[in-house]
Amino acid sequence: xxxxxxxxxxxxxxxxxxxxxxxxxxxxxxxxxxxxxxxxxxxxxxxxxxxxxxxxxxxxxxxxxxxxxxxxxxxxxxxxxxxxxxxxxxxxxxxxxxxxxxxxxxxxxxxxxxxxxxxxxxxxxxxxxxxxxxxxxxxxxxxxxxxxxxxxx
Length: 153
Hints:
Elements: H1 2-9, E1 37-38, E2 51-52, E3 58-61, E4 66-74, E5 80-90, E6 101-116, E7 119-128, E8 137-141, E9 147-151
Antiparallel strand pairs: 1-2, 3-4, 4-5, 5-6, 6-7, 7-8, 8-9
């Protein structure tokens, strides 16, 4: 389990570009009360992880071997927002780049808005993948932007 937590918390960055269904942190005319989310679970508030509004992709492993894609949100801006999407994960056999990908429906909930680095962000997420319950997890950003991950089984 410790290896899984380390893998979630610190893989090398390969420069994946996150897309957003809405505006990004740097957008002109952004509402002052808008809530953002850091959509890269492997690098919760790092340089290569911009704060986004309604991200369409959540990176679970920074090497791209596991992504939650096609996110469609409801309730964004409230204390809790929900999304449906697709979990796209590589088998990593013979390696993660060449591995066969599985695609399963996923639900993502973000909650607990908090002020972090000068902006309001959702501080927790819960990921549920009914087809692979061992992949379900809940994580919250703690002190200094570190990510605390809780496996849900």
